[in-house]
Design a protein that fits this description.
This protein has 297 residues and is α+β, with helices and mostly antiparallel strands. 62% of the residues lie in helices and 8% in strands. The longest helix is centred in the middle third of the chain and has 30 residues.
């Protein structure tokens, strides 16, 4: 399918998405589409309209607040997408995942992330260095980034996770082809990069950098207070990072911004893998379904 020329550079058509189990989720401002490869080879598609709470309350569209709203809604949709894809990709009915199981898994994953990327770096820095203030925060940030990179390397070695990273690459490939306005098919999409500047990987890297900057200017309190900062201020850091990501996308063609987003793109070499043709086909279907809904009537 070739997109009409007037659509190709329309700014409102900036799609986002994520890889799910054996599939891809693509989101516009109003809709989300999940396409998953079933065990029999067919593609199962789920479409859902997004009713963002920020559309009803203007105050939720203010800078910083909008970032928290977007983060919560993205996580909610992402978990729903993983739940749907997990059940579609399972062959046996008795293997299906219950909502309660998914909820417990999500809570445990959040707890593990806080421990791994917030508490452990702070604890290790406290053991390894006698410094305090800015030097402590910089060393802590380096340790946090090192743990994050090690985590990504380990994940790529697990076959099931590696397939999700391939679908992540397929998602980027399809969106890049879409935004270029070319005819959307597997052959054309394969010519486009598996990296994308709006990727959530770049967001995670921004979060790490913002956390270093923020903690370096906070008062040097006692041990428990400083540790509590690492947990309590997670929403604040996320909100600031969201605004930075929006600015980087708005000025993505400037030389300065290209230099700033380069590390995030580099990190995507770990969070994406080269997809096969079947994966790209799934991603293209999701993109086309969202485009169809966006321009319906």
């Amino acid at each position: 399918m070739e997109l009409p020329a007037e659509r190709r550079k329309e700014p409102s058509l900036a799609f986002g998405g994520q890889a799910v189990i054996e599939g891809v989720m693509i989101r516009s401002k109003k809709h989300v589409v999940i396409c998953v490869r079933q065990p029999n080879g067919e593609i199962s598609t789920k479409t859902e309209e997004i009713n963002s709470i920020s559309e009803r309350y203007k105050i939720l569209r203010l800078p910083l607040i909008r970032g928290l709203v977007a983060l919560v809604e993205s996580v909610y949709l992402g978990v729903k997408g993983l739940y749907f894809s997990a059940n579609v990709s399972l062959e046996e009915e008795d293997e299906k995942i219950e909502p309660k199981e998914m909820a417990v898994t999500f809570v445990l994953a959040i707890a593990l992330a806080i421990i791994l990327f917030s508490i452990i770096p702070f604890f290790l820095t406290s053991l390894l260095t006698p410094f305090s203030g800015v030097i402590f925060v910089v060393i802590e940030g380096i340790i946090r980034i090192a743990i994050f990179l090690l985590y990504l390397v380990i994940v790529t070695l697990i076959p099931d996770f590696r397939r999700i990273l391939q679908y992540h690459g397929a998602e980027h490939t399809a969106i890049n082809a879409y935004e270029a306005g070319v005819e959307l098919n597997v052959k054309n999409a394969k010519e486009y990069s598996k990296l994308h500047p709006r990727c959530g990987t770049s967001f995670l890297l921004i979060v790490l950098i913002i956390s270093i900057l923020l903690f370096s200017v906070l008062p040097n309190q006692n041990y428990l207070t400083r540790l509590s900062y690492r947990i309590v201020l997670i929403p604040v850091i996320s909100a600031i990072s969201y605004e930075v990501l929006k600015i980087s996308d708005r000025y993505k063609n400037s030389i300065i911004m290209k230099a700033l987003v380069t590390p995030g793109l580099g990190l995507q070499w770990l969070t994406t893998r080269k997809p096969d043709d079947d994966m790209i086909e799934v991603a293209i279907k999701a993109v086309l379904e969202v485009d169809k809904l966006l321009h319906k009537n």
